[in-house]
Hints:
This protein is of the alpha/beta class. It has a single domain, classed as Rossmann fold. It has helices at residues 24-36, 54-69, 92-98, 111-118, 124-143, 154-168, 196-205, 216-220, 224-238, 242-250, and strands at 2-8, 15-21, 45-49, 75-82, 104-108, 147-149, 177-179, 186-188. A 6-stranded mixed β-sheet has the order 5-4-3-6-8-7, with helices on both faces. The protein has a two-stranded antiparallel sheet with strand order 1-2. β1 and β2 (15-21) form a beta hairpin. α2 (54-69) packs across α7 (196-205), α6 packs across α9 and α6 packs across α10. The longest helix is centred in the middle third of the chain and has 20 residues, at 124-143. Residues 1-19 have low confidence and may be disordered. The structure holds adenosine-5'-triphosphate (ATP).
Amino acid sequence: MVFTSKINNPKNTHTIKLRMILPKLLVKPVGRAISDFKMIKERDKILLAVSGGKDSLSLFHILRHFLASAPISFELGVVTIDPQVDGFEPQALKSFFKKFDVPYFFESFPIMKQAEKSMKGNSYCSFCARIKRGLMYQVARREGYNVLALGQHLDDLAESLIMSICHNGKIQTMKAHYINDAKDLRIIRPLAYVRERQLANFAKTICLPVIKDSCPACYQMPTERVHFKHWLLTEEKRTPNLYKNLLSAMKPMLNEAKECLND
Ligand SMILES: Nc1ncnc2c1ncn2[C@@H]1O[C@H](COP(=O)(O)OP(=O)(O)OP(=O)(O)O)[C@@H](O)[C@H]1O
C-alpha cells in the first residue's frame, strides 16, 4: 500500500509530502487487531511509546497511516523515556520526530542510579521496565492522553505465554487491550497479530533510524525471553502454523478492556 502524508519540513516552514510504502501484510493485521479488540474509539488521544526499536518505530508509521485513513478521528502523540544508561542513546529520536506533525515528549530519568539506591541485586530489567511504565503514565496524564500504545508483537505475546506456563504454571500473557490499575488509561498493543520478522523487514526496507539498545544490564544476562524465542522459532520449522495456533489459543485472554467497550 502506497500512501502520501504531510510532514513538517524542519528547514522550511511549509509542509512536504512523504511517500511511504506500508505493506498490506502489516496494515491488515493491525487493522484487524484494532477492530477485534476495539482498541481505538472516536476522539481517543493515543500516546505511542517509542523506544527507537524497530517495532515501536514501525508502529509509529502504521498508526500515522490509520490517523490519515481511519473512519474515526483520533489524536496521536509520541513519548520516549531516556533511562540514562550507557549503551542506549535515544537522543537522535528528538530530531527524527521534529520532521512529523505529531507532539513528541522526551522524558529523561536516571533509572540506573535510582536502581542502585532502591533495589538490592535483583533484576534491574524489571525495575527499569516498571519505572519506565510509570513515567509513560505520568506523561499521558500530564498531556491529556487517554490511551497508551505499546509496540509488542505476536512473537512477544507467544514468548510471554510459554514463559508463564513453564515458569509459573499459569496460562497468561500480555494483553492486547486493557485498563490500568488506576482505571484512567487504556493500554493497547496494535501489533498483537504481527510477526516480528515482518517488522524487521519493514524497518530495513524503509531504513528506519533504529536506535541500538545495548544496555549493559540487559546484555549481561542473556534473558529467558531469548531462550524461549529460539525455542519457539525452532519449533515453528516443524509446525508452520505454530504462531497462528498460539494466537488462537491466546485470543480469549487478550482483551481485558471489555467493560469500557460498550460505550
Ligand atoms: N525507553 C522507552 N521509551 C518509550 N517506550 C518504550 C521504551 N522502552 C520500551 N518502550 C515501549 O515498550 C515496548 C516494549 O519494549 P521492549 O523493551 O520489549 O522493546 P524494545 O527493545 O524497546 O524495542 P521495540 O521498539 O522494537 O519494541 C516498546 O515497543 C515500546 O512501545
